[in-house]
Amino acid sequence: MTARWLRSLRLSLAALILPLAGCFETAPLTEAATRGLMPASGPSEVTVLRGAVRVAGPAGYCIDVEATTESDIEAFVLLVRCRMTLRPTPVLSATVTGLQTDGTPDMFRSLPEFMRSTPGRAQLSRSGDPRDVEVLEATYADGAVWLLIRDEGNPSSFDETYWRAILPVAGRVMTLAVLAAADHPFERDSGLGILQTFVRRMYAVNAQG
After folding, report:
1. Using an 8 Å Cβ cutoff, are 89 and 60 in contact?
2. What is the spatial distance between Cα 68 and Cα 61, in angstroms, rounded to a whole number?
3. Which of 46, 126, 148, 194 keeps 20 to 30 A from 158, CA to CA?
4. pTM of the full predicted structure?
5. How many C-beta neighbours within 10 Å does residue 122 have?
6. Are 52 and 74 in contact (CB under 8 A)?
7. pLDDT, tens digit, for every residue of 41-76?
8. CA 94/CA 97 separation, integer angstroms
9. What is the pLDDT of residue 36?
10. In a 10 Å sphere around its CB, with 0-12 CB exposed, 13-18 middle and 19+ buried, how is residue 177 labelled?
């Protein structure tokens, strides 16, 4: 493993993660939290980036149309429960980038170590400050990177600790997240289970097209 190869890998990782910066998600999350995360009456599925990617959550989740934002190179989609429940339930988010990938696992396998670094934590941070972020867990499994993160920059309505996955879907790099209400944090395995279901759903709906 040469020094040149390592430098090339770091540059490639930085290029891969750059569009996934947590700060891109801060404004729509904050806006949604400010108006109240009520059940959504939106559709169960939406297409983004000129129809390149379909976004859908697990059963019972709908698209919060007001919180969905899109540019030429990336899209953010918020999903909330379609119906009121007895206690606050986690909300889900999908950030889809214009960065194309063939899904080669080598690059994704290298991400867990990078995400623990200062540049990696800066990209995850809602504020852009790596000091706000602690990566509690970072693993690669089943073609995706699984991250348990504590971010002091999360909007105050949400718990600081949340789950995130980075994965290739429909030839694009995307990140999925599960966020709990600040006054109803989820247990580790519960949050991971929801994220795993979200990931499977995303693979399934995009395989259909």
Report:
1. no
2. 14
3. 46
4. 0.86
5. 19
6. no
7. 789 999 999 899 999 999 999 998 888 888 888 899
8. 10
9. 63
10. buried
State how far the Cα of 138 lies from the Cα of 135, in Å rounded to an integer. Answer: 7
Q: In degrees rounded to 5, what are phi and psi of residue 23? A: -65, -25
Q: Which tokens belong to 162?
A: 């949340």
For residue 16, what are the β-bridge partners?
none
180 in Cβ contact with 159 (< 8 Å)? yes
Q: Tell me the pLDDT tens digit for each residue of 77-127.
A: 999 988 877 677 889 999 998 777 776 777 788 889 889 999 889 888 888
d(CA 197, CA 177): 11
**Cβ within 8 Å of residue 86, ≥6 positions away:** none
Measured CA angle at 103 (ends 144, 24), to 5 deg: 65
User: In the block, which residue shows the tokens 């297409």?
Assistant: 47
- How buried is 47 (Cβ within 10 angstroms: 0-12 exposed, 13-18 middle, 19+ buried)? middle
